[in-house]
Every structure is written in structure tokens, then in C-alpha cells.
Amino acid sequence: MHTNNSESKKPSWNIVIGRKTSLSPKLLESISDTDVLEDACTTYAIAMKKALAVIDEKIKHFYSSVSTSYDKSERSKLIKSQRKLRRLYNQIKIGNEVRSDLYKDVDLGNSVLAVNMARLKVVDVFREQLNQQHNDIVQMLCENNRVLCGISRASTKFARELLAHQGSSKKDIKIYKTSTRYFLRCCFKPSPFSTLGLIVGFGDKKIVDRTWSVEPAILTWLRRELFLANKVSLPTQENPILKNAIEGYDARIVTSYLTTAQGFLSRSDEVFAVKDSFTSQKDSKSEDISNDLNEVELGLNTVIPVPIMELENQLKANKDGTGAAIVDRVCSTAASLSSYSDNPYEIIRKTDDVSDAIKSAAMWMERPVPPWASRPEKLIHETVLNSGEEDYPDINSAMNELNYELGKRICCSPRYLQLVQNFLDLYGSQKQVGLLDFCAEIIFRSDEKRFYHGRLHPVESDVYPRIGGSVPSPVSSVLLQEIGGGNVVINSMTPYWLNARERWLAIDGVKNDISLDIKDNLSFSFHETDIYKFSFGSDWNGLQQIYSGDNSMVAGLPVDMPRGGSKLQDFRIQVRDGQFEIIDNKGDICGLVYAGGISPWALSGMERVLCEISNPWRFTFGERFRATQKTDYGTFSQRIVGKNVVYGRSAWVFNSDKFPQPAMSMTGKDYLDIKSWWKYHDLPDEVFISVIDPYGFRKKPVYSHVSIPASVHAALSGIPQDCAIEVVESLPFGIGSQPRIEYMASLRHKGVG
Predict the structure, then answer these.
(1) 406: which residues sit within 8 A by CB, 6+ positions away?
(2) Phi (first) and psi of residue 585, to 5 degrees
(3) How confident is the model at residue 278 (pLDDT cuts 50, 70, 90)?
(4) 459: how many CB neighbours lie within 10 A of its CB?
(5) Is residue 192 over pLDDT 70?
């Protein structure tokens, strides 16, 4: 672990791990010859400039002749010739091919001919380079077994198509485009997944380590469906009742399990009053929550299935041979998939086995087949650690600057102050109530039972909570990259630091370093106060699981309860001196720390309220707060630069009708148009491009270099018509020989405000 001890005995920042691309960006140069295409484009630009100058001179001549001519017939001919030249001028300017043999004027004809010849050269070079780059990328992926295994982990469907395409002379634009996207991801995006992006530790030891996590959704789905099918006897527990002291009603937590079209798994825990009719409860649910009758019935029942992980053993204990066999097949095939394999064909076969097992289980239980059954690879996450190869970056000045600037911009969340005032309005300052009871009350008093959409009374106050008790000292998490000269660029920063680390405790090679980092930061945040980690949806999404590698105490809802954990429904809450105090089941003031991998901003309902209560700190600086100016094409956000730190990259958002949208079969003419458009908007050569759908969902960004046809085709072709397009400068720039590394740092802030 790297620390800085220049100003205090305790370190102010740590860098624990890195996230690294699996391929070198230099490989992009090996599949492209940008000089040939750039020379052709330069020749074309020069020829077009000369032609436009000749045409402009002719237009001026005709204009002068018209103004001095007194013959009506002659003037009419001159005006027609002038208009013809203007059309020619516009046609050449937008890159269209025109016939030079129609012009008897030698200078004009030769100029048009030169433009046409230069244009055809660009089109030919583009087509040749695009085809060559596509073939090179497909071949490179197929010959790189390590990357090919990573692709098989990400999408067995595409891996199967890619392997079938290998050695084929048939052109498949979709395969070419997807292959390029995977290739660029491996070269420029250091987000970890299997062998497509790696985790790196620091130190002298050489380690290559793999860990697999099977999404708990498989077992949770089996448990719930068996419970609903009522084919076997499963143990149950009471669905906890929340007592409401104000209105006098009881409430229960209704759980809904969601799967997006992208395969993302989420769980919604909503609170419903028992006294409400079933119809009103069902109708009040938001559209993104499943309205399946059985889902609602399960949550409203007085009992829910116990969250046991050894489901097969439980069935065997009940002497249910058929059920045990069905469960055994699902669990064993999933376990088989989550094991090391350097054979992509084997990974594909094992994934198909999981899909077949899930479909067979659903058929036996007479229950619907889950939407993820056809994409079970989404439920297996492989992490590859490649440690001991990297040195700590020499970025002390940048990190000290970042710590200082963020420390000045930490403030209290207005929602925390709102919640404090809401508590005082409801209960006064002398009363303790159940922690979840208060959360339920807030949800009931918010619109659509969604706290982040709720009409809570705003509170204006300069009073900040004092650090101590249940209020932690602020610690933030930052992802950053070097950009040379000891300078860094920030990829993301959040005051919720723990959720960026907890998931990596499952990796043996970095577990000790991360555990120490967590321990030190928890001690700094809460001093002598007992601390409990909490999360939600851990029975459905692996990112939300809490690991015990650092021996922390944990607390959660019944379905999230790890062994030996405390029940959040046993915790109480009060307001003292204008801030919350949380009391654990022992009667002691304690601190709560959100440990889930899903961002708190993406949570809703009870989960969101608890996150707001547990951590009041926010930044008044960052991506969400930087100045954005409107333009005729959309918006523009200027780069935010400090002395040694770039806090935000330059970013452009274009309306779809203002952005070039070539078809899947992109042509050289499309490329010329894009180059011209790129230059007009003064965009950098290297960017990341993201598509934002009408609902605000931002698809994963794709790297693009405007001089490399394959990358332009992968990023721009086939963009839907009704979307916005975000273009962000790819800082750091340059196609270097070393993989790109993103560092994960924690920063401890002493000052507030």
C-alpha cells in the first residue's frame, strides 16, 4: 500500500490497487497505417481548396459582368452560369462527386477533375484500410486465446459467431464491428472483467490469480420458485413487521427482483402498509417494478423463505430426491462454469449446460423461465489479478492537491438536513424510534414511495453535523489515471468510498492490502464508535455482497443476513444536537457504512434513505457541478484543470440530428463527411463516444480515433436516430506501448466546508 505521510503521522491518501487494460494500445498502430489515409485526406483537402478558390473567382467574375452588362439576354445567361457555379461550389464543398467534362473552362475542369481524383483516392484507401483493419482485428482476437476466453465469458453468443467466422472469406459487418469494440475495450478501457481488463496489485511478489463469483441470483431464483411452486418443504422465517407509531398501522417489506434488458440484476425493497388493500398496493407500484402477482404475494406473506445457500443439502434433508436432483444440476453446472478454463469452446459448452439446467428446473417446477436463462454467462463474473508487475505512480503532488481541493468542497447533503428536520417534526428531540420504522415513514410521506422523488420540505441551514458518534469523518474514493509529468486525470470520485473496494476482498492476492486500507479508513472515520457494514440485494446481485475478509461487523435485512450479522430492524435512531444518532441492538451509538457495489445514487426507497442517514457528506465539485453551456448542437462542458489535476474532461453532447450517423456498411464518402464535421466542431482526434437513449440510459463508451477507420466505424455506425451522443476527450492521449492503468485511491479529509 502506498501512503503519503508528509503532513501527518496518519496517511492522507492511499493507492491500493490498479485496474489495467489487457492489451497494449500500441496494437492499434499495428493494424493501421494512418499515414496513407491522412496523406490522401490532405491531398483531397488541398485540391478542394484550390477548386473552391477557382470557382469563387469565376463567380466574382460573372457577378462583375452582370453588374456592368446592359443586355437583358446576356445578363440572363450570366446569372444562369453564376447559379450553376454556386451549385457546383456547394456540391464540391459537401464532398459530392461532379462531372468535370461538362466544363469547357480548362481551369475549372482541371480543378474539378483534381478534386474527384483525390476524393476517389480517399474512398479507395478508406475501403482498403477498413477491410484490412477488420480482418486484422478478427485474426488478432482469434489468435489471442486469453482474450478469446474473456469474450466467451462476456458473451457466448458472440464468441460462438466469432469462432465460426474465423478463416472465412465472408464479410460480416456486425462481427467486424463487435470485434473492434472488444479490441478497443481491451486496449483503452481498464475496467476489470475476466481477461478483458485486469486487477493489478503492487509489490515485489509475482502473482497471477483468478477468482470467480457466481451471482447469487441463481440460488435465490431456485429458492423463490420452489417456495412459490410449493413442490417441496422449505424452512421459512417471519417477514418483519415495521411498527408505525404515528398513524398506527403496520408495514412489511415487499421485495421485487428485476432484470434489465442489459442483464443487470437489481432488487427493490419497498414498504407497504398491511392495512392497504392488495389492489391499491399493486396499483401503486412503479412501472419498473414487476407487477407479477406472486412477487407481491410473497412479500406480503407473513413468512418468507429462509435465505439458505446450501439449498441442495436442505432438500436432501427433506428426502426430496427429485427436487434435490434438479437443484444439484443447476448448482453443479454453475459451479463448473465458475472454474478456470483456457479453452473458449469449453466455456461456451458449460454456459449452454447452465442454460439447459435452468430451463429444465423451471419446467419441473411449472414456473416461468427467467429472462437471464438464455444469457447465464451474465451470472458468472471472473476477476483476473496480475500483481507485481507495476510500480507505484509518482503522483504525490497531484494527490496532495486533490486531497486539499476535495477537502474544501465537502459539504453536508441537503437531504440529510431534510431528514433530520422530518424526524424532529414527526417525533421531537426526546424520542428514539426504530431505524427502519423511520425509513418507512419517510417513504410513505414521499411521492410514489421513492425518496429521491419525494416532496420533502427543503431545509436551508449553515449548520453542519459535527464529526463523531454516528457521523463519520469524510473519506472519498477516486479513480484516476496518469497523464504525464506527475499529473493525473480524474475518472470518478465519490464520498462513498467503501463500495469501490468491498468486492475486491474476494481476491486473495490483494485481500490483505485492501483489508488494511478499509480498517484504517474506518478507524479514521468513526474513531472509537462500533461500525456496521450494510448492503441490500446481496441475495440477487454479487456486487452487493459483503465479504468478511476484514472481520467487520455487518447488519442487514433478513434476506441479506450473512451468518452472525445483526438485524437492522433491531437498530434505533434519534436526533441529538441537530444530527442523527444510530443505536445498535446492544444499546450503543454506532456507525453504518454502505458496502454495496452499486452506487448509492442508483438506489431507491429504504436503501436510499439509509445511505443518506449513514453518510451526510457530498462534494460541491465534480462532473455533476461543472459549468455546461448550451450550443446550437447540444451542450459543451469545458475541461476543469487544477495545477496537477484534471478534474473533468472536455465533453460534448450532440442532438442526434446534429451528429453524423453512417450506416452499418460505412463508406469512404461517410468518412469524408465525418472528417469534415469533426474539424468543423474542433473535436480531438481521440475520444470516447457514448449513446444516450431517450430514457437517459448511457451505453458503454467506445474509444474512437478519427484517423483510424475501424474505430470510427465501431463507434459511429448504426447509431439510433432518436438518441443523444456524448463525446468525451480520451485523456490521456496517445497510443503508447504500455497498457493503460487506472488507480484506485482513498483520501481522508480532515476539514469540512
Answers:
(1) 476, 493, 619, 621, 747, 749
(2) -70, -5
(3) very low
(4) 15
(5) yes
Buried b (16+ CB within 10 A) or exposed e, 37-72: beebbebbbebbeebbebbeebbeebeebbeeeeee
Q: How far apart are CA 746 and CA 707, in angstroms?
A: 37
Per residue in 493-540, pLDDT tens? 888 888 778 888 888 888 888 888 888 889 899 988 999 999 888 888
Other CB atoms within 10 Å distance of the CB of residue 270: 25
Cα 94 to Cα 40, 97, 544, 675, 694: the distances in Å are 17, 9, 52, 11, 30
Angle between helices 321-337 and 217-229 (to 10 degrees): 160
**Alpha-carbon dihedral sign for residues 405, 408, 414, 416:** positive
Is the Cα torsion angle 215, 220, 223, 228 positive or negative in sign?
negative
Parallel, antiparallel, or unpaired: how do β-strands 475-484 and 410-412 relate?
unpaired
Among 25-34, 75-84, 630-639, 659-668, the minimum mean pLDDT is found in 75-84
pLDDT at 231 over 80: no
Neighbours of 145 (CB within 10 A): 13
pLDDT at residue 279, rounded to an integer? 31
| pLDDT at residue 25 in the model | 92
Of 46-50, 426-430, 688-692, the range with the highest mean pLDDT is 688-692
Q: Which residues contact 631 (CB under 8 A, 6 or more apart)?
A: none
Residue pair 716/744 in contact (Cβ under 8 Å)? The answer is no
- Measured distance CA(260)–CA(296) in Å, rounded: 19
Average pLDDT over residues 89-102: 74
Rounded Cα distance, 672 and 682, in Å:
15
Please state, in angstroms and rounded to a whole number, the distance separating the CA atoms of residues 582 and 604.
21
Calpha distance 662→670 (Å, rounded): 6
pLDDT for residue 572: 96
pLDDT score, position 232: 75
Q: Where are the domains of the chain?
A: 2-21+400-618, 30-122, 214-387, 624-744
pLDDT band for position 704 (50/70/90)? very high
pTM: 0.86
Are the beta carbons of 531 and 553 closer than 8 angstroms? Answer: yes
The answer for residues whose C-beta is within 8 angstroms of residue 389's C-beta and 6 or more apart is 200, 206
DSSP string, 5-45: -SS-SS-SEEEEEEEEESS-TTHHHHT--HHHHHHHHHHHH
> What percentage of the chain carries pLDDT values higher than 90?
33
DSSP code string of 493-553:
EES--GGGTGGGGG-HHHHHHHHHHHHHHHHHHHTTSEEEEE-S-TTT-GGGPPP-TT--E
pLDDT score recorded for residue 489: 96
334: closest CA among 216, 223, 209, 159?
A: 216
Check: CB of residue 129 under 8 Å from CB of residue 36: yes
Amino acid (one-letter) located at 70: Y
SS3 assignment, position 728:
strand
d(CA 543, CA 503): 6
Query: Is the pLDDT at 243 greater than 80, yes or no?
Result: no
Which residue is it, cell 474539424?
679
Rounded distance between C-alpha atoms, residue 551 and residue 114, angstroms: 74
Measured over the CA atoms of residue 151, residue 152, residue 154 and residue 156, the dihedral's sign is positive
First to last CA, the chain: 29
Residue 641: phi, psi to the nearest 5?
-125, 130
CB 578 within 8 A of CB 471: no
pLDDT for residue 623 = 46
Closest CA to 454 of 418, 412, 489, 428: 418
Strand 553-556 with 530-534, pairing:
parallel
544-569, pLDDT tens digit by residue?
888 765 667 888 887 776 666 888 98
**Rounded-to-10 torsion of CA 463, 466, 470, 474:** 100
